[in-house]
Amino acid sequence: MTGAALDDALLAEVRGQLVGGAPADDAQLHAALRGSGRVLGSTALADLTRRARAELYGAGPLQPLLDDPEVTDVLVNSPAEVWVDRGAGLERVPLHLGSPAQVRALAVRLAAAGGQRLDDASPLVDARLPDGTRLHAAIAPVCESGAVISLRVLRSRAFTLDELVDSGGLHRCWAPVLRRLVTERANMLVSGGTGTGKTTLLAALLSLVPGHERIVCVEEARELVPDHPHVVPLTARRPNVEGAGAVDLADLVRNALRMRPDRIVLGECRGAEVREVLMALNTGHDGGLATIHANAAAVVPARLEALAALAGMPREAVAAQAAGALDVVLHLRRSGRVRYLAEIGVVRRDARGELVVDPVATWDREQDPVYGAGWDAFVDRWGGA
Ligand SMILES: Nc1ncnc2c1ncn2[C@@H]1O[C@H](COP(=O)(O)OP(=O)(O)OP(=O)(O)O)[C@@H](O)[C@H]1O
Ligand SMILES: [Mg+2]
What we know:
The chain has helices spanning about 10-15, 25-35, 40-55, 65, 100-115, 160-165, 175-185, 200-205, 250-255, 275-280, 300-310, 315-325, 375-380, and strands at about 75-80, 80-85, 90-95, 125-130, 135-140, 145-150, 190, 215-220, 230-235, 265-270, 290-295, 330-335, 340-350, 355-360, 370. By secondary structure, it is α/β, with parallel strands linked by helices.
């Protein structure tokens, strides 16, 4: 025999031969595979080593998809339905992951690799894998197909503004504007639909923060890796089996305030913690940044109101707090392969006291940016291009 299938029995044998928690190197994996007595040929050995590594420490059969440099998302809906985003939107890949139980086992193992539990009592997980990939997984009873797995590949390094300009994601004239907004300590909200590059732009902005400033980043699962020497990452924690020990984003924002932050950052505003953030930014903490899911800059006020309502804040109070707390909204859009900054808006209250985001500059990538009535005042306040 020159090769062997990487079946469950062989994997179990290899697992049994490996000691310690740290991932084995290739030599150790070779030895364990040879030790099984079932692998002889060196070609088969190299192939099995790669697949065993993916099974033991990586994303198993999904690992080759994640290793493709073009791929940003890998989505598993059921064993026979796997999708990837290679930059041009979702495409289905001809990959079969076996039985629903095998997909569930993969989800459980990935969650464990991200330090989280995934089982009947706790069927949803949001985690970060050791290589930085963001994992979301749901298993029965929440979904019927065994498991639904969503993986987001993260870049190991934040984009610079020049790279964003070169890739078509940022109009050349707006790079200096963003630099000014960061150094002048504007409180900013990065908005956009799902996967439009909000976290990516946020990391790029944080990389512009002067090195002597201390940034405290509050996130659900760690994603932000700005190029900055002084970042304190705080991540939320789910309750344990007894329902104790939960630390939510609102707790973390409150605590971040006591950690002598120069900048408070909330990776994504998606619940009641918006109240804490608005309060923090209203009480002298400027230069704060957060992202929010919104399909247009104009609906950001309604999103803020809806999230703040979860924290029991009436509309009127949200408008007053948000107008005081937030200066600028940077809205992203995606068109095919390109994710780009489409709008710069300012936050204010209108004559009726309603919260509004006024577009001061918009860009559709086809033509030069269009500047609105508020642009001159914006430049007076923050400095222009
Ligand atoms: N300007 C860009 N050029 C190339 N790739 C990008 C760009 N912006 C984002 N990406 C890639 O697109 C993917 C989605 O980006 P990101 O995670 O920033 O989006 P998001 O809006 O925060 O998504 P979510 O709604 O899931 O929070 C990532 O893999 C990221 O590396
Ligand atoms: Mg994001």
